[in-house]
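S1.2 Input.
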Amino acid sequence: MLRKLLIAFGIFEIAMPQPVIDACERIGLENAEEAQLRPQALWGARLEGALFVWVLARRESGATIANRLLALAGIALVLVPEPLVELSQRLVYENVDELEPKPWVNPAARLLGVLYLTVAALSTIGSDESEAESARN
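S1.3 Output.
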C-alpha cells in the first residue's frame, strides 16, 4: 500500500511539480512568497518524482545505482541536513540570500531523508504481489 502511495506521489510530482515545490516552500521558508525559482527547479522536482516511480515500480528486487544514490542522499539528509539544504537552495532559487528559512527546515530535511530511505528500502523488497505470496507460504 505504501509503495502504491509513493508511486502516486511520484507521478503527481512529475505531472505537477509546482504544487509540491509550493508546499515545500511553505514548510521551509518564512518568506515563501519572495522565493524566485530557477528555471531548472521544476525539472529537478520532476526528476525526483521520476526516481521514486522508477525505483518503486520495478518488478525486480536488488540494489541499482538509482537505489544506492537515493539511499546515500537519504543517509546524508538524516545525518547532516544543513549543507544539503544550503546546496539545494542554491540550485533551486535565484535569490537565496533574501530567503529566511524556518527553524524546523533541518528537521524537515531529515524527514525527507527518511522518506528517501523508505523509498530505497521498499524498492529492494520487490513487488507487492511477491510480498503477498511470501506471507502466504
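S1.4 Remarks. The chain has seven helices and no strands.
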